[in-house]
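User: structure tokens for this one?
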Amino acid sequence: MAKNKKLNNTIRVSRQVAEQFIKLHSDLQGFIRDEIKAELDRRENDEFDNFSEFCIDWVSVKDRLPDKDAPYLVFIPTADDTKSLIHITWYNPNFGWSGLVEYWIDAITHWMPLPDWPEDYRKEMDV
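Assistant:
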């Protein structure tokens, strides 16, 4: 009898923990969804997101670096001009470029903001 009570109590507590976990998980998903939506809304108002109005050409790293924490297209020349690289990498004003090996980071000569998402995709995904 005592074993059944203990087992029933363990099952009850396990269910309570599972229910709390499910609620926390749901709350966390809602929080993440809200944060992503807020970030997308913020970016819609960001001058860097309107690619066609901001920049049509590459910006030399000698002239200036990005001032926003975001991904960018970067150009990395090589000895063979036919094999130069265009890559997407992240820039943070406090830490610099990341997402590439240091050799390539040091070789970046130009950058530009990423273009907007395709219009049909933005409508479909409500971005």
